[in-house]
TrEMBL record:
<dbReference type="InterPro" id="IPR011001">
    <property type="entry name" value="Saposin-like"/>
</dbReference>
<dbReference type="InterPro" id="IPR008139">
    <property type="entry name" value="SaposinB_dom"/>
</dbReference>
<keyword id="KW-0732">Signal</keyword>
<keyword id="KW-1015">Disulfide bond</keyword>
<feature type="signal peptide">
    <location>
        <begin position="1"/>
        <end position="17"/>
    </location>
</feature>
<protein>
    <recommendedName>
        <fullName>Saposin B-type domain-containing protein</fullName>
    </recommendedName>
</protein>
<feature type="domain" description="Saposin B-type">
    <location>
        <begin position="110"/>
        <end position="196"/>
    </location>
</feature>
<dbReference type="InterPro" id="IPR051428">
    <property type="entry name" value="Sphingo_Act-Surfact_Prot"/>
</dbReference>
């Protein structure tokens, strides 16, 4: 078992090293976590900022220190905009489309299962907190979100996304109902593996966008 765990950990490190740093992913991560915390009663701007800075530390464990540093910079410089948009109930998808920096799509590989799960659960959280809290209705909405993903990531991503929704809607819905964060849900779905612990073992102080851009640079 120990040998197997070491191999899994090594594979995760290799994947992270090969993936490279994606500033837009960092921004998307910040907005996804901000939306999660905001909908879980962290509605004070200062408290939200502190939670997001802790999330940036966790991001560093998954993506490396460059990602953590950029994540921290986004939080420190753009917390006012982030908080204002959350108060205005703008969803992450709309924030990403209001881009000031766009990464060339032709240079990007097809996203992996973890990235697709990241996107999918972020959309699920948004819809769940905006009154689409029936499992059947959520299934329909997420299937539509998979179609939107194809505009930016290609048909392979759409196929993977729809298969994930169809196979995992029960777990997705159960985790949303339980208030689990997006990372924990993707971990529960066995789509994301890395050094980050499960939700229950996170410290008590707290913890790919559709359009490859962000307004928070």
């Amino acid at each position: 078992m120990l040998k197997y765990l070491l191999l899994v950990a090594f594979a995760a490190v290799v994947v992270i090293a090969q993936r490279g740093h994606d500033p837009c992913h960092d921004c998307d991560f910040v907005i996804r976590q901000a939306e999660h915390h905001f909908h879980n009663n962290i509605t004070d701007k200062t408290a939200l900022k502190q939670e997001l800075l802790v999330e940036c530390q966790w991001l560093g464990r998954r993506e490396g220190q460059q990602a953590a540093a950029h994540c921290t910079d986004v939080v420190n410089k753009q917390i006012d905009k982030i908080f204002a948009d959350l108060q205005a109930a703008k969803m992450k998808f709309v924030l990403a489309l209001a881009a000031v920096v766009v990464v060339a799509l032709a240079q990007r590989p097809t996203p992996g299962p973890c990235q697709i799960c990241d996107y999918l659960i972020a959309q699920a959280v948004h819809h769940f907190h905006n009154n689409i809290n029936d499992k059947g209705a959520l299934l329909t909405q997420l299937t539509q979100e998979c179609n939107e993903l194809g505009r930016y990531e290609g048909q392979d991503a759409v196929t993977q996304c729809k298969a994930m929704v169809a196979a995992q809607i029960d777990t997705i819905y159960a985790d949303l109902t339980a208030g689990k964060d997006p990372w924990q849900t993707c971990f529960d779905l066995h789509e994301c593996f890395g050094t980050e612990p499960t939700h229950g073992t996170r410290p008590s102080q707290g913890p790919e966008a559709v359009a490859r851009g962000a307004r928070y640079f």
